[in-house]
Amino acid sequence: MRPTRDTRQLNWLLAWAVVFCDIGTSVYYVPGILYGHVRDATPFFVLLTTGGFILLALKYIEISWRNPEGGGVVTITTKAFGPMWGCLGGMLITVDYFLTTAISAVSGFQYMGSLFPTLDSYLVWLAMSGVLALAILNIIGIRESAAAAMIMAISALGVDLVVIAFSLGHMQLADWSALLGHMRTAKQLSSYELLAGFAAAWLAFSGLESISQISPAMRFPLRRTTRFAMAAVILTMVLTSPILTALSVTVLSPDIKATQSERFISELGLLSGGFGVKLAVVLTASTLLLFASNTAIIGSYHVFLALANRGFLPQVIALRNAAFNTPHIAILISTSVPILVILMTQGKLVLLGDMYAFGLLGAFVFSSLSLDVIRWRLGRRDFGFWVGIFTTAMVMLAWGINLIEKDLATLFGGTVTVIGMLVAVGVRRGWFIDILHQIPAIERLQARAYRASENLVEEELKGLVTLAEAVDLKPLFPASTLLALRGESSRLIQEGIARAKGKGESAVYCIYVEEWPGLFNGETPHMPNEEGIRTLRHALQEVRGTNIEIIPIWTISHNAAETIARAAKELEVDAVFVGVTRRSAFYHMLRGHVVKGLMNRLPHNCHLMICN
Hints:
This protein is mainly alpha-helical and 612 residues long. The chain has helices at 12-23, 30-38, 42-66, 73-81, 83-113, 123-140, 146-170, 173-184, 191-200, 210-213, 222-251, 254-259, 264-273, 275-309, 328-345, 349-377, 383-405, 407-429, 433-436, 440-451, 467-473, 490-502, 530-542, 560-571, 585-591, 594-601; strands at residues 5-6, 481-484, 507-515, 549-557, 575-579, 607-611. It is built from 26 helices and six strands.
């Protein structure tokens, strides 16, 4: 069985917010990185690449709605070229996520350092500690809130526009002349220098691929949602990235550009609007950058899960933590590599930026080319198809130039990709099985990973139903009591049985909600996890000999309270029984408080009963 997954909570505005919280962070570090390479031509190259970004963004609309299951480059490349190529695409985007995690963490603390200069001396350790803290939070299971993303996106966009307005007001006639001069500097460059600058400027639009990762969380009709969301992304990026880049390179003094390249935008805010504007930039930038770092971690481990489900990585990587139902091994891998990268580069932003190009443009190439192949197979030869071919050629050219220009990026990205592909091929062909099974710890973990097989669900749980199936069964098993279970709770079940008997009913609904935190939802299972099996089995054992029938319901949701409340409404019960929480305040802060959520969401005629 496969439950209806209650995770499509993103309308177009919320989807825009999630994507902007990723792609919108590039403006905080890209102008300084590019200025170190192309100097005064930086505004020209960002503006030039903005045109390419728009063309590629239009293709990502179709990539997203064609793949409602998510998976981004892994899914679209698999459909176009086969599983092995999809695996290669996954390795490329993983390299991108590793660097995104590292560069966003470093940049976030660098912006904090503009207010507290003493932090600069501990930048490497702060960035590493930040990624480690994000690893812990993800293992516990952050429920990424689209509402929080919305607040951060609107705040960052608002501050960006304020900085632009103050900077435009601050500019003198000489500044306007200088700005026009920056746009004309391209005339002095050779053809190869133009190509190299164009290739490097794609860093300004990293994060574009995130819309294809969140498609499982976007509302239907998916085509409409993705179109509106991407239109908003394009508009807000055009209004911010090229303009802020041009203003910062034009208005800031040579001394500031030479010494504060890591935080151009906060210095621009200070110069044009004073300390208050700088403070607003630092607060929004540092928050957004750490959020982007966390988003990259989530994207990375979901790629690992997708590859493990396709048989390219050991199943042990997909193993979920018994306490929090999160893939802790995949999360640890997704955070360990960025920590090592930060340590090896000593948090040098220019170095991290140079390393970035390999995976970013590689994933763009695979996604764009795969869509072209799918369109060709479908018989499309219209104007949009040929524009798409041009877009692919443009991105391939940029990637090829970066492979030559960015030696470190090619070395790092190529090494990680080759190692990943060797592991994938080895797992696929069984090269490592005999060796790994000789290690007792690996053998135990692998046994746990495979335990969730067809034999896991015992015969007594074969009657497990989804919420929709339970609604269909209501005429046969009418009941007014719903038990929301988490773990073995004999007292709770006995209270439910007593109430059913008191009302002359012969059945009780029993729901177990498997929480899958996050917006990047990967492939969900066909059966409950170990805790769900244990919980529902115990409930069935408790009702034996009581003449009460339990209808066991299993579903997956990002928000347990919301799903339980919806179940109460659809099943038309007048009482919901829950146990006293054993979770800490810190856990509730990250994952939400189910009891409080139910108090706010249950129908007015439905009573909430809390049992010890």
